Task: structure prediction
Amino acid sequence: MVTGTSVVAFKYRDGIMMAADCLGSFGSQARFRNENRFMQVGSNTLLGASGDISDFQYMKHALDDLLTHEYDMDDGQSMGTKSVYKYVSNIMYGRRNRFDPLWNAYVVGGVDGGEAFLGYTNLYGTTYQSDCIATGFGAHFAIPILRKRVDGRADEISEEEAVSILDECMRVLLYRDCRTINKLRRAKVTAQGVEISEPYVLETNWSIADNVVGYGA
Amino acid sequence: MTTLKPGEVNLGTTIMAVKFDGGVVIAADSRTSTGTYVANRVTDKLTKVEERIYCCRSGSAADTQAVADIVKYHLDLYTSQHDEMPTVKVAASLFQEICYQNKNNLSAWIIVAGWDKQTGGDVFEIPIGGSLHRPEFAIAGSGSSYISGFCDKSYRPGMSKEECIEFAKNAVGLAITRDGSSGGVIRLAVITKDGVERQVVYGNELPTQYTG
Result:
């Protein structure tokens, strides 16, 4: 099966920022190198996916159907972020109860009525909300960095600083996760709406390789 | 693909060696992985066992280090006793003996390459199981699957030293791009009668390739 690795996300001054690489891994093979693991849901919600890509595509379809239904209702209401989050997490929990999970970890982020929202849900239907969320390897490597740089000061962080925090997290993951590539997408949600960037690459430093000879024997 | 014991550290890897008139070019990536964690991103998999004989290690990091250390000891003793350098064939033979007799307990896929006075440049490959092979060029490790086609299409007998270096850089670079168990920098070494020149190609300076 084709899988995606970490999604890293946090709240900053203007809303939510997320990053994920563009890789769909096929076991250890870096097979699909132009995947988009983000989905815009409605006008103000962003979904970032890790895990099974086919299950993510199923979820995308389910959300498209939901939005189509809402459009058909034509009642002047629009899908809020918290509603999207509840919908996704309920599907996840429902599938878990039937022993037929969607093998994913999702990050749902959005700006609703001026307030930023960031939530997590996964194949078990577990949910939590926080200023900083990361899935997969990101939970081990990015969260400590995010906790140091974001916790308690999310509304002080400018867009520029937010990008540098994301880059720092994604660079560590690039160095230490076998299932990444150096091609990532950044996405943000602000009061103005959802923006998913084009793929970009990170600077890396390999100068420590020069001094390594042998393995110490 | 590899039968590592639980928790064992894997050399995932792409390694290769190419013969040319006057020596060999050997190349390797620099990633050591434990599961999907990169335990070492700047590993040196090109291991000296004698002044002009190197081995490229892939498979279990522990197993290949242990085997290389033993072969190094034996070659050191050989040099002292014979008062001359062993041939690459001798080194490869020692590797084979250990890998074959301990086949049930080892996870090692090794390339032995170097220069000796008798033959000039020489390349040997010892895959899992401990058989010995003597190809013109050898590719090994999990990343090698992705570059068999590229290597078969690009290799020509009688390439110059510079052409072999480009061939190795491109091949290992392509494998690093596709194999999750390979990565980091490309380490190269050119072994001739005059010595061993080592080179490093950084992970962000790989030869150009389509990365769709």
About this structure: Chain A has a mean pLDDT of 96. The two ends of chain A are 40 Å apart (CA to CA).
